[in-house]
Inverse folding.
């Protein structure tokens, strides 16, 4: 602390003390027009520019937001201490930490299950099946798109997009036109599919955990999400190359317990929903209980490994099947904690940085100003549509967290609208969603920001039509 105190004092001297409203203990300070407020905004802006340049700088996105969050809260802590309001800042900090902790544990369990399915070769088996059926480019375009749409509500849209991209890259070969259109299609499909499920995207999960929309009410967004994906896909399908891709036949044997892990994941989701619906507890309680299912199943796999190996080896020797002997790796033991270590920690830490940065800006008063402008002076419908457009430039996670922190008074229809727009609005630009950013790296230059931008008007058509369909189908929810 002794090293940082002189720096904080120097920074405080640079701040406009006149702009700090005198407050009683327990009240927040008005800092939106102060030096500390402007400095915090500048820090967050610079950090987010570095996040958007991650692909070019090779700098992991968690680093700048973690640093910005630390500096912002250090400045807030010092200024609040000087005004005798330390308890206010402390409670605000604890509130934001609790919000993050619930989402962290929830996502950690989901990522662990996805990693376990990947390790048991479920995704490899799906990829091998798709590449061995002799589909042409048009069939693969639609197959990968619809699979992305229907897998992302269960897995997250990032994992789904990467899986489908691996298939496209494998069968597309050097056909850049097909790979580019297929990747755009996958990004739009994964984002649209994630919008009608609490598990499809972090933003929908945040809205569900905040209690604004019930679990089954997300299904009201199903048809709008279909329209959001289908319209751009129909237009792009006319520009696909003709012909057949090079087919690669590959045998993939699932590892022991693969299908049962899928069943346990479904049971985990049911448990999470039950905790929320029956007891009004955060869904993370059910997810952590679901992690215990996976841990006990891992214990079962380890304890029965020797018997399973002996049985398979005996059968293979009796049949003279040398290939089966070589494939005995399918019964390797399963380690849950190794799967946890494979979670996308950069994303989880990035999320922490974003939550804390936005929480700090909220305490400084900026979210109150935005809320006053968008949700008091504007119609909530136009405010929610603007949120979707904003999420194409800034990641939808901080945008949605900012909306939830504002806590505007809205109907269920409007909460569903902002869930839809924040989820699918990121498809307008390649940098607007984690799926788009990830595929720019995974496609090795065959899917780029500019190539996506050329199709933005068509994607925007799907965005507008999905909103209109939601307003028409679910008009009763806006009352």
């Amino acid at each position: 602390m002794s090293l940082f105190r002189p720096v904080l004092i120097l920074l405080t001297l640079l701040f406009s003390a006149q702009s700090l409203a005198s407050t009683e203990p327990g009240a927040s300070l008005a800092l939106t027009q102060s030096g500390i407020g402007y400095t915090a905004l500048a820090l967050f802006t610079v950090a987010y520019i570095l996040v958007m340049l991650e692909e070019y700088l090779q700098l992991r996105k968690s680093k700048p937001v973690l640093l910005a969050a630390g500096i912002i809260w250090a400045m807030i802590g010092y200024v609040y201490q000087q005004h005798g309001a330390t308890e206010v800042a402390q409670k605000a900090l604890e509130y934001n930490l609790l919000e993050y902790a619930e989402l962290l544990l929830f996502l950690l369990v989901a990522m662990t299950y996805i990693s376990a399915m990947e390790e048991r070769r479920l995704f490899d088996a799906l990829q091998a099946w798709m590449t061995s059926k002799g589909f042409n480019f048009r069939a693969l375009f639609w197959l990968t798109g619809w699979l992305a749409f229907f897998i992302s509500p269960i897995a997250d849209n990032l994992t789904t997009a990467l899986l489908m991209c691996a298939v496209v890259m494998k069968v597309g070969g050097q056909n850049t036109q097909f790979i580019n259109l297929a990747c755009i299609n996958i990004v739009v499909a994964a984002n649209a599919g994630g919008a009608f499920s609490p598990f499809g995207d972090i933003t929908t999960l945040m809205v569900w955990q905040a209690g604004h929309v019930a679990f089954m009410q997300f299904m009201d967004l199903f048809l709008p999400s279909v329209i959001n994906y289908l319209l751009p896909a129909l237009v792009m399908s006319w520009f696909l190359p003709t012909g057949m891709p090079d087919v690669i036949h590959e045998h993939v044997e699932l590892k022991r317990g693969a299908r049962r892990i899928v069943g346990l994941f479904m049971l985990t989701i049911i448990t999470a929903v039950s905790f929320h619906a029956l007891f009004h507890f955060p869904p993370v309680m059910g997810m952590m209980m679901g992690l215990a299912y996976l841990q006990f199943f891992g214990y079962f796999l380890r304890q029965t490994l020797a018997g399973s190996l002996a049985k398979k080896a005996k059968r293979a020797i009796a049949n003279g099947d040398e290939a089966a002997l070589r494939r005995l790796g399918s019964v390797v033991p399963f380690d849950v904690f190794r799967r946890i270590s494979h979670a996308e920690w950069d994303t989880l830490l990035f999320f922490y940085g974003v939550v804390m940065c936005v929480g700090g800006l909220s305490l400084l008063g900026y979210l109150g100003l935005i809320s006053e402008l968008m949700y008091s002076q504007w119609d909530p419908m136009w405010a929610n549509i603007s949120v979707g457009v904003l999420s194409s430039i800034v990641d939808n996670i901080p945008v949605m967290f900012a909306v939830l922190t504002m806590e505007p008074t809205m109907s269920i229809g409007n909460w569903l609208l902002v869930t839809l727009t924040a989820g699918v609005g990121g498809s307008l630009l390649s940098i607007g969603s984690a799926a788009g950013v990830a595929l720019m790296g995974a496609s090795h230059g065959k899917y780029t920001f500019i190539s996506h931008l050329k199709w933005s008007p068509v994607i925007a058509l799907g965005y507008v039509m999905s909103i209109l369909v939601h307003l028409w189908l679910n008009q009763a929810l806006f009352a």
About this structure: Residues 86-119 form the longest helix (34 residues). Residues 362 and 368 are 7 Å apart (CA to CA). Residues 1-26 have pLDDT under 50 and may be disordered. Residues 260-331 form one domain.
